Amino acid sequence: MNNWLHVYSEADVINLTSTRENELRYWQSLTFLEPNSQLNVALKDAAAFGIKYVLVGINEDFGPKANCGKGGATLGWQAFLQRFLNLPCNDFLTPKDVLLLGEVNCDDLQQQSSNLDNSNPEQLVALRQLCEQLDERVVYVLSMIFAAGLEPIIIGGGHNNCFGILKALAQTKGTACHAINFDPHADFRALEGRHSGNGFHYAHQNSYLCDYHVVGMHEQKNNQAIIAALNQAQYSYISYQDILVSRKYSLTQACELGLKRFANKAPLGVEVDVDSISYMPVSAFTNCGFSVSDAEHFVYLGAQQANASYLHLCEAAPGNHPQGLAQGMLEAGQVLSGLVCSYLRAKRHKA
Ligand SMILES: N=CN[C@@H](CCC(=O)O)C(=O)O
What Pfam families does the database record attribute to this sequence (predicted)? Predict the structure, then answer.
């Protein structure tokens, strides 16, 4: 049953692509699955044929809305595809082990969320229930990818989806996982119903997460209950202020503090909320964040770990760009593509 996954064929993305003479572009040598195949078998076959990385999209924004935030994260995946698919293949970019799988089916949930107002308490509860339903679909799709021994790169939607990804990884591997998160928000808010601000807390509560490190957590963007819950769980963070204000740690050191602790242990999730990056079009805009290359460096260091099992890039909201949607698509697409290329680059340097 592929109900929770829309498996792409080339026809699904052809409108996003272009060609140029004397140039082979990424989409022209990517692998697709046969859309009507039995998914678990097809994924295992793909792995046997040398596929290692699987691109999956999630087009929703009710996760951030259920966290009392703004919408717009439905278009992150499309922004990524528009850019990434048209990158030139060259000595540095070789798609031979990358599969463009498709997107988690959630149009029906997104549709239901469009009439819900997060300032109305009852409708906020309904938004959080939609997140729970999405969690189940994310778990279903991601479990099959992990079970095939593949590494997913999950793009789009809110940070709520870290919960489903970690649950799928933990259940498939039979062990609680580690996560390292580049994020001004610890996403360890109260267990008040699912949303984009509490995915790691729910993962901890359900024993899918056994160790967690936040890089660049912003001292002005997390309440005391979040800090207390992180401390109680004995998780760690190095704040944005530690790295860029007092400069007590370099970014590399801030990442390594977590990565060294996680090394050669349980499976590791590499998480980036792109609202860590200054001027990104996102649900929670910042002009006092990190640079794109800082985020790329974070991804690079995470991906170099032998136990790195997935990359999750969330919260891009192209329509929230002050110059409009077209500019937002362009900038989000470029940043998300850069982050994916950093992940793949680190993996190849390691291999
Ligand atoms: N994943 C994001 N978490 C932030 C979001 C705030 C917002 O969307 O405005 C948080 O919980 O504070």
Answer: Arginase (PF00491)
